[in-house]
Amino acid sequence: MSEAPEVRPPAVTPARVVIALCLVAPFVAMLWVGSYAKVDPTFIGIPFFYWYQMLWVLISTALTMTAYKLWQRDQRARHGGTK
Predict the structure, then answer these.
(1) Can you give the three-state secondary structure of the chain, one letter per residue?
(2) Given a cut of 60, is residue 83 above it in pLDDT?
(3) Rounded distance, CA 19 to CA 76, Å?
(4) Radius of gyration over alpha carbons of the chain, in Å?
(5) Which end of the chain has fewer CB atoms at under 10 Å, N or C?
(6) Which residues, listed in sequence order, are joined to residue 46 by a DSSP beta bridge?
(7) What percent of the chain has pLDDT over 90?
(8) Per-residue pLDDT tens over the stretch 49-71
(9) Distance between CA atoms of residues 23 and 10, nearest Å
């Protein structure tokens, strides 16, 4: 009795690489303090240091949502669209 081994999709796919980049980008941006530890340019009177961080709150939300949607699509594709 010979059974063919189950063929599974590769663990590292382009979608998963994009997911990882979406989740890592905010950490890199916030941990690289030297890139935003300054006052100028100001935005409506708010120093760069503060508005840059607040901008990353919005960017992080969008990137996390994108990663989640890509993960859902990846899981549906791996499990044959049963979810």
Answers:
(1) CCCCCCCCCCCCCHHHHHHHHHHHHHHHHHHCHHHCCCCCCCECCECHHHHHHHHHHHHHHHHHHHHHHHHHHHHHHHCCCCC
(2) no
(3) 15
(4) 20
(5) N
(6) 43
(7) 61
(8) 999 999 999 999 999 999 999 99
(9) 20
Reference 36, options 20, 59, 63; nearest CA is 59
Strand partners, 56: none
Given a contact cutoff of 8 angstroms between Cβ atoms, the answer to whether 36 and 52 are in contact is yes
One-letter amino acid at 80 equals G
Tokens for 74, please give them.
């990846």
Distance of CA 16 to the CA centre of its chain: 10
Sequence-separated contacts (24+) of 1-8 with Cβ below 8 Å: none
The two structure tokens encoding residue 38: 């300054």
